[in-house]
Amino acid sequence: MPEPASADATGGGSAVLFKDAAVRLGGRSIWSHVDLDVGRGQFVAVLGPNGAGKSTLIKAILGMVPLAEGSVTVLGGSPGSTGRDIGYLPQRRNFDPSLRIRGIDVVRLGSDGDRWGLPIPGGARLFADRRAQSRRVDEVIELVGASSYAHRPIGEVSGGEQQRLLIAQALVRRPRLLLLDEPLDSLDLPNQASVAGLISTISKEHGITVLIVAHDVNPIVSSLDGVVYVAQGHAVSGAPEDVINSATLSTLYGTTIEVLRSSGGRLVVVGHPEAPAHHADRHTGRTR
User: Fold this and answer.
1) What gap in Å lies between CA 222 and CA 62, rounded to an integer?
2) pLDDT per residue over 11-28, tens digit each?
3) Is residue 36 packed enough to be buried (19+ CB in 10 Å), middle (13-18) or exposed (0-12)?
4) Are strands 86-89 and 177-181 parallel, antiparallel or unpaired?
5) Which of 53, 118, 249, 275 fits as disulfide partner to 30, beta carbons 3.0 to 4.6 Å?
6) Cβ–Cβ contacts within 10 Å for residue 91, how many?
């Protein structure tokens, strides 16, 4: 991956480092020989067809899926050892319109969800902690631009507004690494652009490393520092222009792939039944 513009601003070094890594699930190889170096403060997209193992890559970073071979280092430690420094937004599911829990309560779960929202006995110190927590919840709600609807039931706000609240939830604990699994999926184009812009701004202005799993790179490509493209049991990574091109993807797939740019500037990958512009419905239960 290319180095951030300022190593001092981002802490320098690697936020995520895979070396010759492999994952096998149920006796089947998901991907192997993966080398990946994501610098601190970078904004990186994980791309590829359905079933390629994109979400598995995120779960390996979280320590939810063990490596069969190789190694992975996350924020200088082993997967699962730096959980409080990681914000995670799993694949989105729509909230039931009748759900009455407020947006602010959903955000607060990012701070105390491990205690089911219940305070731990602790007297004055706890009271001070709770006030600080409340201030932090207000801060991240303002940061994502959700103040005007955070007190409404989560089921009543739009999909884009729900996604902003969920991003706020992932930011409450001031993570150094933010992992977002298809946060733009099921959003219309204006909301995709809006949420993508928000994520880019958060990464750049707050020095947070972001890995975002995406079906369509177009809403975010102009903001990316790097791309990881997973396909055919392998992965390639680098700057967007070095990865999303006909030669690189043809080598990765082992067949002819064309990367075209439309008159409007959108990238279109053709030549494979599940290239990024032509994914099947993601709610199939398949491994990503």
Assistant:
1) 27
2) 348 999 999 999 999 989
3) buried
4) parallel
5) 53
6) 16
Own/partner contacts of 281-284, CB < 8 Å, gap of 24 or more, are 282/50, 282/91, 282/182, 282/185, 282/215, 284/50
Sequence-ordered list of residues with C-beta below 8 angstroms from that of 112, at least 6 positions apart, any chain: 118, 119, 133
Sort strands 177-181 and 209-213 into parallel, antiparallel or unpaired.
parallel
11: exposed, middle or buried (Cβ count in 10 Å: 0-12, 13-18, 19+)? middle
Helical spans, DSSP H, in the chain: 7-10, 54-62, 103-112, 123-143, 159-171, 189-206, 240-243, 246-253
Of 109, 32, 110, 115, the closest CA to residue 70 belongs to 32
Residues sharing a CB contact under 8 Å with residue 108, sequence separation 6 or more, in sequence order? 117, 133, 137, 169, 172
Helix axes 123-143, 159-171, angle to 10 degrees: 140
Q: What pTM was computed for the model?
A: 0.83
At 282, the pLDDT band (50, 70, 90 cuts) reads: very low
Distance of CA 239 to the CA centre of its chain: 17
Tokens of 62: 């979280």
The span from the CA of 34 to the CA of 1, in Å, is 13
Contact 37, 73 (CB under 8 A): no
